[in-house]
## 1
Amino acid sequence: MIIEWVAGLYASSLMVLYRSQRNSLPFQSSTLDLSMSLRARWDGTFEVMRRISKAVSQAVARDSFPLVLSGNCNASAAVAADLTSTVPDLNFWCIDAHDDLDTPRIHENGYLDAMAASMMGGLSWETLMKFVPGHKPIDLEGGLWCGFRDVSEIQKKNIHEVGVDVVWGGPAMKGNYTTEIGAALDRRQFQRTHIHLDLDVLDDSLGRVNDWPSPGGLLASYLLGIMPMLPTKTTPTSLVVCSFNPRLEGGDTVARLAVKSIHLFIRGLVDQRILVASQ
């Protein structure tokens, strides 16, 4: 098995950094062509998701592990769309400052990224999601969300109404957040799981990840402890790393931390023999 990158906007810096590391596993990469005209149209979101789903399908057919570097969270809805055809009981693990469970009924900022999880779970944009190959709503009760801290009161109410399992971030983080997440994964007993890492879960003191910074996030030591732990608690099917703009202040620091966390995660896959190099 090899690692296969599917890279989009803002992702190339992470890919270049990872290439510079000494890694024993071979990998292939592909970059989606995102023309300005596509990005300028609101329906371009679903076209990009369609392309991601297709690229993931091709990677899986080559017995590769899909690693998607994306400008926003919608990539996970696209990855899940492809994987549900072969993993009908797909679990979902997410670490993110935001819940992404908005629906048009409660949405306040006009940014579709805030609806990524609700699209994945069939709670919003049902008709347009039919154009994403393989899409079938996943059971959101089969997910574990970690790190939420930048959520409004109406979003908190929605989180409780949807009934997702949350290990809260921000002021709710306890002394050893890594252990708390590990205990939650032990409790849930996930089998095959898509992993979603939104880098804005990091504390803004480490650098600006994107245009929506907020204090009270994860420090580097937490992330570097959590990522290699995941393959010991579940069997990851895929990884999305998203919402990073390297042009912002502190981008180099965030990029190095992201690459180190990806490297530790992949090393964990190898150690658990979830990922084995092709002969």
## 2
Amino acid sequence: MSQDTRESSESTEVDKFLPNNLSLPAYVPLSPNLRRDFERVFRVTANDLTTPAINQHRSTTKSYIHYILENGTLDFDEQTLNNFAIGYKQLLESRCNLKKFESVASDDRITNYLNKSQPLTLETLDSYHSMEKPSYEELMSQPQAITSTTEVENHLKSDEFYQLLRSILFVLKHPEEPVPDVTADDEEDVGISGGTISLKDPLTLNTFASPVMGSCGHTFESLSIRQQIQQHPNGVIECPISGCDNQLLMNNLKQDILMKVRVRIASKQHKSNDDLDIVH
């Protein structure tokens, strides 16, 4: 047998043990050495700095609002409130993106990628080539890995405090107008009469001094509604507003900050108009 024939035969024998495709497949398992680093990066709860920042921002903003409301000679500064709202919105967006990042880590395709037990060897190379799976880089670059604008908007709409800030900014210029509703398709007519918001307690017809809101969204003067609830043997009454059958209890009444701001701004506007009338 010639040397060429012998080398060709040996080469054929070796090829039997080699994969059909020796190129690197698009899908490969994550090295076990890197898995701990991967899980540490995706451990959102431990790395979440947005929640304490949001709580601190909310506390500071509330302190400012309450301070202005408790001092009748002071006025709200629109720029300050706007800065509070912008900063709070940015923190909410950051938390939303962080939660999305966490959901990406729990994606089945990602966990399968991490939990793949077979190492990449010559024996497993062909099986990896046959897998119809995107690469890790493709997974992370797909649109679902990034929070969409709609998701962020829905997050903002559901945040009660952000909506309060947004409403206060509107009320600074329009104290007796309903805030444009961006959380529902149909406008609520609660507290709206003739296109304006009533600044008077529906029970006493006096201007609100310490307004509270029931779980149904109707606002009353704290003293008057609490007296009605206390007078009832069970400590529960049906909402006094016609057509509303919600039950009111002491512990489901909460301070209506927005109404208090409305009354403050409206009274200052009326006083300013009266002063102008005197001058003229």
## 3
Amino acid sequence: MQHFDVTLQVILVVEHLEGLIAVGAGRYDCLDTGLLDQGHILFGLFQEVFLVAHLVGPAAAACLSITGDTEISARLIRDLDPHLVALQEVDSGSLRSGYVNQSRYLANQASMPFWCHQSNRKVGTVAYAGNGLLSRYEPDLVVEHRLPGVIPGRGTLLARFGHDCHGLDVAVVHLALGKRARIQQLRFLARELDSGRHLVVMGDLNTQVDSDPVRQFREVLALRAPTRGLATYPSWQPQRAIDHILVSQSLTAGVAEVLDVTYSDHCPVALDIELPEGV
């Protein structure tokens, strides 16, 4: 296992892209097909969420979530030179992406040696969406969870670094729009995630962190909400705080920041997280 003695700077972004991304498959014939989740495909809107983490030496690292089409996203990731990238609603090789696995493409373009996918929702040949993870460090274990709900297609991708209680777990979560489904999903995750390890949970929760279901979830897993109250949606006039990064009480979080960009309908959220020695 790798040992991290660093600070993570976390940024979470959700994006809707209008129209199909017409990418010639021939340009990327070295790539496999992957996975992706697209809740708004029928309306021609696309979401991409990327969480990027820099692990750059003692007490210095960064996590970032970015959005944009795959070309812009790859360039941003490459420029940021991150060590960990969490992806939501990236395409695995459907018409939507020009039959390109966006997770694999981003990993290749950003020189990220380790990548994995969780396929969640397929809409014919038009879209195939889900969660992804890119990393410069090889996780010791990657686990996929199918989240409960009347409408299938939600999931959580969990990467585990280290095997003991000093290890780090990173969970990429995108919860349902409906309150009843979110409650089911949060209860499921509260049972499946390990509060005995250092834990970071990030993603579009589609609700505020002080809502009763999320508050109960945080209490069970001993998670703090440094992104509390930071409005991220819609990006052109943020009013709703629904995109969050939750961290274990064992981790020291800095001041969270919403980045003022409008290339997504959700603003990015940035956060510094200091990891203790031995992680």
## 4
Amino acid sequence: MKRQWHRNHLVRAFLCTWCVAVLLWCPAGQALAAEAFVIAASPSLKGLLERLSSGFEQAHPEVRVKLYFDSGLQLRQTIAGMENSMVGQYFIGSGPISLVAPGGDEVITRLQVKYYVLPGTKRTYAVDQLVLVVPESLVEAPGSIEALAQGSARLAIAEQARTRLGAQTADMLRASGMEESLKGRLDMATDGRGVIDHVLSGQADVGIIFGDQAVEQQQRLRVVGVISKGYKPTVHSMAMERYCPNRRLCEEFLTYIQSAEAQRLVRQAGYAVPAMSGR
């Protein structure tokens, strides 16, 4: 069993190194024109990180940000495999990954315990938020969860046991005392995509999804309210990988993601800005 575990980590480390090498490859002329660094991140943050990377590149035309996506668990295993296997042994400042941006702070906390990210480099930059959405074509719609409770509209929500969206929505409904007033009008969907489908098909009048999901569907859905109380939102942070090849550049990016310009992009992507952005 131990040998199999070690072999799996060797394979993941090799694949990660190979994938990052492919990300960094570019024609010789471009390589001379721009310095690249890699952010290993959760796929759920793709839209947000693409916006932040583009904004950073505009302010730093000599830099190209490359994004490598993997799930939280796989991301942690990949970094652990790189750090602990013969395939992934690097000298300080020579590794393929510069920054780590998992979907939530739990993974970063685990990486900090193992010293896979540098102490003191964690920066918080975005927070998930729940929003009320309706079809873009709908003229009159409730503008808050309280207004919804007083009407007769059906509300589509995600299942509590299946998704983080469903768990946060359930917490919010309990905390707001709306469960009883919405009884018989709740339309249960599997996940966020299901909520969107139910609203667009007319099965429900209003839906609760994450803000970034609403941004992705802004041609078809309209946000009529933001829900900021009654649940514990997921906080997103970024930290420097121990073998970051260019610490100065990484520090610049970590400073940038808490700047006023970055906060504007965070809001555009459908997230809230942390009340006190910091470590």
